[in-house]
């Protein structure tokens, strides 16, 4: 069983783990809260296996969807208040909950660690220059044991080979899925695919 480094945890998070769970569950439906708990565990397991920072992986995994159930209006207000790229206003919750959601985590939970906030910000659209922590959260969200979509096994098999291979499979499958649904694709998603999802 992989576990948090208690000293590092308390340096990064201004409350106990149990209080963090309470704060998270206050903003999420039970089904999404349970998903967050599974992503926390999955991210810690991946980090442990590759010798990465288990504590940051767990915190970022746990909180990655913290803002997912906020209103569109709350996101628009945050985009304006943080002077984020106005282009973001052309997208919706699917993009906002990570890219903009990181500011809710910082302001409401008092977590200021740049690496954790970045991993939360990149968990949906990735980034051409994702760090190992970014990749761990990106992949953990996709392969956690509650996921059952077609292609999840291919991603899990890729992860058994390497984290980078799992990132590539996830990007390939996500882009295909979005194109099939004829939805607008955020430019960073394409840029990430071009850098990390192609041969
Ligand atoms: O929040 P989760 O459901 O746990 O997972 P997620 O944050 O990875 O993805 C949320 C949704 O966003 C999922 O249906 C895939 C979709 N998505 C990923 N990239 C893009 C996107 N949707 C649009 N419209 N554009 C994108 O570039
Ligand atoms: Fe998400
Ligand atoms: Fe998620």
Automatic annotation (TrEMBL):
GO terms for molecular function: bis(5'-nucleosyl)-tetraphosphatase (symmetrical) activity; metal ion binding; nucleotide binding. It comes from the Bacteria. It catalyses: P(1),P(4)-bis(5'-adenosyl) tetraphosphate + H2O = 2 ADP + 2 H(+). SUPFAM superfamilies: HD-domain/PDEase-like (SSF109604). The keyword Transcription does not apply. Residues 32-146 form the HD domain. It holds the Pfam family HD. Its EC number is 3.6.1.41. The keyword Nucleus does not apply. Keywords: Hydrolase, Iron, Metal-binding, Nucleotide-binding. InterPro entries: Diverse_Catalytic_Enzymes, HD/PDEase_dom, HD_domain, HDIG_dom, YqeK. NCBIfam families: bis(5'-nucleosyl)-tetraphosphatase (symmetrical) YqeK (TIGR00488), HDIG (TIGR00277). This is bis(5'-nucleosyl)-tetraphosphatase (symmetrical). The lineage of its organism: Bacteria, Bacillati, Bacillota, Bacilli, Lactobacillales.
């Amino acid at each position: 069983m992989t576990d948090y480094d208690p000293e590092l945890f308390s340096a990064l998070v201004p409350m106990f783990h149990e209080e963090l769970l309470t704060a998270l569950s206050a903003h999420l439906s039970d089904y999404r809260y349970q998903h967050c708990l599974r992503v926390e565990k999955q991210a810690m397991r991946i980090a442990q296996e590759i010798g990465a920072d288990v504590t940051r992986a767990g915190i970022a995994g746990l909180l990655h969807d913290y803002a997912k159930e906020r209103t569109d209006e709350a996101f628009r207000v945050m985009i304006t208040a943080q002077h984020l790229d106005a282009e973001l206003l052309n997208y919706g919750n699917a993009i906002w909950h990570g890219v903009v959601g990181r500011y809710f985590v910082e302001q409401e939970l008092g977590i200021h660690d740049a690496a954790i906030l970045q991993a939360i910000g990149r968990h949906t659209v990735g980034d051409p220059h994702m760090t190992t922590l970014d990749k761990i959260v990106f992949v953990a969200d996709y392969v956690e044991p509650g996921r059952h979509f077609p292609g999840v096994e291919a991603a899990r098999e890729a992860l058994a080979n390497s984290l980078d291979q799992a990132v590539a499979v996830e990007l390939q499958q996500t882009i295909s899925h979005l194109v099939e649904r004829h939805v607008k694709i955020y430019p960073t998603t394409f840029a990430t695919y071009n850098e990390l999802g192609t041969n």
